[in-house]
Amino acid sequence: MCAMSNPARDPAPSRLAYRVQRLWLTPLFRRALFRGMPLAFLVALPAVWFADDARRAAIGTEIAALRDQIVSRPEFMVGMMTIKGGSDELRADIREVLALDFPVSSFDLDLKAMRVVVQELDAVKAADLRVRPGGILEVAVQERVPAVVWRGEAGLEMLDRQGRRVAHLEQRAARPDLPLIAGKGADAAVPEALALIAAAAPLSARLRGLVRVGERRWDVVLDRGQRILLPETGALVSLERVIALDHVSDMLARDVLAVDMRNPNRPTLRLAEGAVDELKRIRRLQAGASEG
Amino acid sequence: MTDLYQSQRAMRKMRQQAMDRGVIAILDVGSSKIACLVLRFDGAEPAGVEGIGALAGQSRFRVIGAATTRSRGVRFGEIHAMQEAERAIRTAVQGAQKMARVRVDHVIACFSGAEPRSYGLEGAIDLAEGQVGAADVARVLAACEMPEIGPHREVLHAQPVNFALDHRSGLGDPRGQIGNRLACDMHLLSVDESAVQNLAHCIHRCDLELAGLASSAYVAGISSLVEDEQELGAACIDMGGGATGLSIFIKKHMIYADSVRLGGDHVTSDISKGLQVPLATAERLKTLYGGVVATGMDDREMIGLGGDSGDYERDSRTVSRAELIGIMRPRVEEILEDVRARLDAAGFEHLPARQIVLTGAGSQIPGLDALAARILGQQVRLGRPLRVQGLPQSATGPGFAAAVGLCLFAAHPQDEWWDFDIAPERYPARSLKRAVRWFKDNW
What we know:
The complex is a heterodimer of chains A (about 290) and B (about 450).
Chain A: H1 15-24, H2 27-50, H3 53-71, E1 77-78, E2 80-84, H4 88-98, E3 104-105, H5 111-119, E4 124-132, E5 136-143, E6 148-152, E7 155-159, E8 165-169, E9 180-182, H6 190-199, E10 207-213, E11 217-222, E12 227-229, H7 235-249, E13 256-260, E14 268-271, H8 273-286
Parallel strand pairs in A: 2-5, 6-9, 9-10, 12-13
Antiparallel strand pairs in A: 1-3, 4-5, 6-7, 7-8, 10-11, 11-12, 13-14
Helix pairs in contact in A: 6-7
Chain B: H1 2-21, E1 23-29, E2 33-41, E3 61-70, E4 74-75, E5 78-79, H2 82-100, E6 106-111, E7 117-126, H3 134-142, E8 153-165, E9 168-171, E10 181-192, H4 193-205, E11 209-215, H5 216-224, H6 227-232, E12 234-239, E13 244-250, E14 253-260, H7 264-275, H8 279-289, H9 296-300, E15 302-304, H10 312-315, E16 318-320, H11 321-346, E17 355-359, H12 368-376, E18 380-382, H13 401-411, H14 432-442
Parallel strand pairs in B: 1-6, 6-11, 12-17, 17-18
Antiparallel strand pairs in B: 1-2, 2-3, 4-5, 7-10, 8-9, 8-10, 12-13, 13-14, 15-16
Helix pairs in contact in B: 2-4, 5-13, 7-8, 7-11, 11-12
């Protein structure tokens, strides 16, 4: 139909229209338009709004105010603290370390951190904190029980059965019921010391205390300056041997300065000076020599 | 030669890409209409019916978009006004894309003009090993002597149509068979270079990639000849608007194609000149009242010519239908006689079965089969294209034989020369590729 006159209207799309239609039929483009653009719009709108510093600050204060409003509702307020267990001094100590200024909102109470703070007190073995209905902060503590008095470098300390420090002690006389241990490193061997003290019950009237020597072994100190030197290992057995000897021959009642059990195969007695002379004299008499 | 080989290979690769993506467009650039079909390849066989998959492979695709537009800037099946043709292609592609609701990037095109010329080539090689391998097929194809196709011509199709191994001929696929001497016959179709370049340029300007080219005579034959016609020998005559293409098939291969630069447009212009009416009116008269065999009834059937010149005498003219037929018949006879001359030149009478199938929009003239039987021979039938899935009713007429054939061509392309690897002998002597190939072939 080469020579036919051209029709008035050409149905052919323009190059631009053709390209736009092809673009429109591209799946990636459609997806970008239908999914990407609304998404971008949703992201861009708040981003543009928040680009302004003043608006950001305003919204910050708004949020803070709202939070305050909720936090300070009476339902969430904690008015008092009760402490269960523990001595009066410990309770006072707990009140001091927690330093809470009631009333306070339960949102502002960090119970975990407070529990750590309470447990860091030496006298506290375990602590439980919870907010009870009615706005009461309940602190349940388990106090450590002092088992021995330790005379260390820092003065007198009370230790529990595991050797953990319980409290400082001004005078030994304040707790005469507790046995005394002394020496550097004695707190690390408290269970052994307690066993030794229990074993030394027959000597309890004369027992002054235990001394840790060289951070490795114990000396049992009795009155009149008598000492029982115990070995590093098998201290309990050695002590029982000494007590048995004492029981049989009344050894410790004599003029002995020290019973040296450090070598268990070779127990040694150290006599007082006068006692040695006396012994020699008696030996001579027995040998038939006349006095003089 | 290598240039074309490479560009054809590139097109074949592009076609494969498009198949992988699943969408490809078919563009039939004709002189009177440009049709665009969008195919979707999903590989799904139609459920239930066994064996239907073999139906020329056409069940593998579905037509999802179709659009037709009046052709502009195309004459004798060649582009002669680039801008106009580009706009027409754009219209068709846009319409088809709109219907398919998908964007197509790859297009396979066919055209009827560009003076196709057929050549029969033959080559033979001695086989080194007894067995024929793929490399031997490539070598025998490369051994075909290239005819002088003349300057500014390009090879559009180069299809091996027959292989012979020693004394056995008519082998479809010689690979794996044992013999000493392999020979092949190849059909080569050359077309005018500038026509191909113009079409490629037009398609490129529409932002599309050319994924294949075919002669419309060939693809019309694929779609409108039935399987045994293709097997036993038949000619397909595609009567288009500006050119009439003819292709001869035997053993399912095209062995000859040509085109006559006469078509329906010439009939229209004859009517226009003879009856002194505008071309649009002439086209309408041809379509509604046209024919080639006049009967007594036609003398009495008067047709108003119409017109809006303002002159009553002129606007109220009437002609009898016999007069119209009298104008049309000599031109149709001329076309058919030209076709006959080409068929004779091609030696069509030596084929075992001399079936002739008329297709194309021009074949719809009433009485054409009787006229064609007189001129071309007794075995003439009117052909319609194969039915393919999803094709709209409006696109099932004989005018769409080439478009439908192109769909089948896209789904099941015939092996062409460039589908085989280059024979090692044709590489440059010091090429690294040659060394690589040698290693590949020998280990």
